[in-house]
Specification:
- The chain has about 300 residues and is α/β, with parallel strands linked by helices.
- The chain has one domain: 60s Ribosomal Protein L30, Chain: A, CATH 3.30.1330.200.
- Helices cover about 30% and strands about 25% of the residues.
- The chain contains nine helices and 19 strands.
- The strands form four sheets. An eight-stranded mixed β-sheet has the order 2-1-10-9-7-8-5-15, with helices on both faces.
- Strand 9, helix 4 and strand 10 form a beta-alpha-beta unit.
- The longest helix has 14 residues.
- The chain is globular.
- The termini are far apart.
- It comes from Leptobrachium leishanense (Leishan spiny toad).
Length: about 300
């Protein structure tokens, strides 16, 4: 079955704004979500999902209660949950391979759900704004179509994308919501800022920056986060880019320079420095060809798991 809202099939050829207008619950939900105060999450019980990553777990997880991601401008944050099992997946999508990513999101939830017929799949799409290149609108359409193409019934609960997530300040369009968190125990969705991006945030960013595809980073059954092993071709001219002015980096490496959060350039510089120091990660980081595995501690820190098989 296709993508549904109130038991009606959505016309995914329409814009997000038009879809919301035809389904008042979606329009009201977007207004309610954008009106929320931003809450800060992390580190206790929190798992941060970077761009081109997904993480899935269930309400029975003893280590993780909140999944979250932020810094989304033209990117979209996707939350898919099965009401029966409580299995919840959060992904940060940038349009690099939307159809494949949607399949991965769906499979991550179904893998943690013993019986998908006992309950239903509920979808939340958040992110984007009215950007000059219309990348947000393109990604909104891609995601709606990709979910509509799945064989499972998927019920759209939240649609807060592109025009529905747009504000204008002095003639400049900006996203209202940059980040989202979901409570995997209660299924609540929050407008969020994430203060904890660990572990291995530079390593994970470098993988995405060099063209890595979306990866699932969390094993809910073991309650462990797994990073890598990654490989990449040495990124060219890292020393050159580290010498450039902030404005140059912003213009060259952002899809929406006027809408980026204040720490965007510092984040890119940190990634460049990491790539400069680790041109061949299979030698410098993953010489043993094994992932870096972590477990969340009660105080919110991530402890490296050094055991057989890791």
């Amino acid at each position: 079955m296709p993508l549904l809202c109130d038991s009606q099939r959505l016309d995914v050829t329409l814009s997000a704004t038009r879809i919301a207008q035809m389904h008042s619950r979606l329009e009201e939900g977007a207004k309610a979500l954008t009106s929320q105060p931003t809450q800060t999450f992390g580190p206790k019980g929190f798992l941060y999902v970077q761009q081109r990553e997904l993480a899935a777990t269930t309400s029975k997880d003893s280590a993780i209660s909140i999944l979250g991601s932020d810094d989304a401008t033209t990117c979209h944050i996707v939350v898919l949950r099965h009401t029966g099992s409580g299995a919840t997946c959060l992904a940060h999508c940038d349009g690099s391979d939307t159809e494949s990513e949607v399949e991965d999101i769906l499979q991550a939830v179904k893998y943690l759900s013993n019986n998908t017929e006992d309950g239903r799949l509920e979808l939340h799409l958040i992110g984007g704004f009215i950007d000059k290149r219309r990348l947000s609108q393109k990604l909104s359409s891609q995601l709606l179509r990709a979910f509509d193409n799945q064989s499972d019934d998927i019920h759209l609960i939240t649609l807060c994308v592109s025009e529905l997530n747009d504000s204008e300040e002095k003639g400049i369009h900006l996203p209202i919501i940059y980040g989202i968190a979901v409570n995997v125990k209660t299924a609540e969705i929050f407008k969020a800022s994430c203060e904890d991006r660990k572990p291995d945030d530079d390593l994970r960013s470098a993988y995405t920056f060099t063209g890595g595809t979306m990866l699932s980073i969390y094993d809910a059954k073991k309650e462990q986060l797994s990073i890598g092993p990654y490989s990449w071709i040495p990124f060219p001219n890292t020393a050159f880019w580290l010498e450039q002015e902030d404005g140059q980096i912003l213009e060259c490496f952002s899809t929406s320079p006027q809408a980026e959060p204040p720490h965007f350039v510092a984040h890119i510089r940190s990634t460049f420095q990491f790539l400069k120091e680790n041109p061949y990660p299979m030698k410098s980081i993953f010489a043993d060809r094994k992932p870096r595995v972590y477990r969340k501690q009660l105080d919110g820190s991530w402890e490296r798991v050094l055991s057989q098989g890791t």
